């Protein structure tokens, strides 16, 4: 590789490749590997964008069996001639950010939804009553990832009235301190430019089915690339028209990752995310008399005082407590898993030591 390489001259620059990534890739390039970004993942195979265009690669060659499998958004080092004749992912570059939720299997391991994301766009539909609790949960997930969250109120043309839409925006803004809130109708184009203005870098769309993510994605992409479907009028729910996460370049720069609708989003070790999502509660808690105040019945609780005088909605405190309990439970499961893995490792070492001792005794008797 020539020392005159410029990350900006690489076709991968449109997908986020930069000088820092090129420097990280030095040892891989010296080993004959090529860089690429994972665009979509199937079982055992994935679509990867490289300097020479898209390719289909196998995922079975990644180094350690304990490492995370490739995920949409990952930067990968590819071996051009894999064991099955197709390119193979040999290694993943360290993730700058990662959106992780509790796994669908409800075990103690997290599931990575997208990697190396700069902006998390949380789609909240105005076609139905806004679920602030779900929005707060997704905000905690987004903050924990290390990316910047943005709330996009979609389907404004389906709101009962303009006044209802404005009221919903105010309610969401109150539940999303420090977060940009934009409103649009992707179907009519109204507000799409305002949404585009608050998005940057690699953008991932998250939210439930029927929230209009794919329709918004098509508006941002400037083409009908993503499949869309109708929603039920009664509850605003729709079919999962997006069946896998995929990565697409945006015409004005940056990259878009569309995700399937999330029926449930369990928090996974999201303490920092909760602190950011509930910054107003955390700020109030700093004024409590006791440092370990649970904001329940303790005297001198600044949080309860704010609820009583109307400065903090009771609903918001209840949501904060609920998500804190869930996160503590998830952390306890992780601790239990780590403890079990440590115990298994110790048992394996003890077994090897016992086998070696018995072998030494046998060899001593034979001499």
TrEMBL record:
Keyword Metal-binding part of the UniProt annotation: yes
Every CP-type G domain range: 107-265
Enzyme class: hydrolase
Annotated residues for binding of GTP: 207-215
UniProtKB keywords: Cytoplasm, GTP-binding, Hydrolase, Metal-binding, Nucleotide-binding, Ribosome biogenesis, RNA-binding, rRNA-binding, Zinc
Annotated EC: 3.6.1.-
Chain residues that bind Zn(2+): 288, 293, 295, 301
Cofactor: Zn(2+)
Superkingdom as given in the UniProt entry: Bacteria
Location of the EngC GTPase domain: 115-263
InterPro entries associated with the record: G_CP_dom (IPR030378), P-loop_NTPase (IPR027417), Ribosome_biogen_GTPase_RsgA (IPR004881), RsgA_GTPase_dom (IPR010914)
Subcellular location: Cytoplasm
Cofactor note: Binds 1 zinc ion per subunit.
Main localisation: cytoplasm
A Pfam family of this chain: RsgA_GTPase
Protein family according to the UniProt entry: Belongs to the TRAFAC class YlqF/YawG GTPase family. RsgA subfamily.
Quaternary structure and interacting proteins, as annotated: Monomer. Associates with 30S ribosomal subunit, binds 16S rRNA.
The protein's role, per its UniProt record: One of several proteins that assist in the late maturation steps of the functional core of the 30S ribosomal subunit. Helps release RbfA from mature subunits. May play a role in the assembly of ribosomal proteins into the subunit. Circularly permuted GTPase that catalyzes slow GTP hydrolysis, GTPase activity is stimulated by the 30S ribosomal subunit.
Protein name stated in the entry: Small ribosomal subunit biogenesis GTPase RsgA
Originating species: Actinomadura meridiana
Taxon lineage: Bacteria, Bacillati, Actinomycetota, Actinomycetes, Streptosporangiales
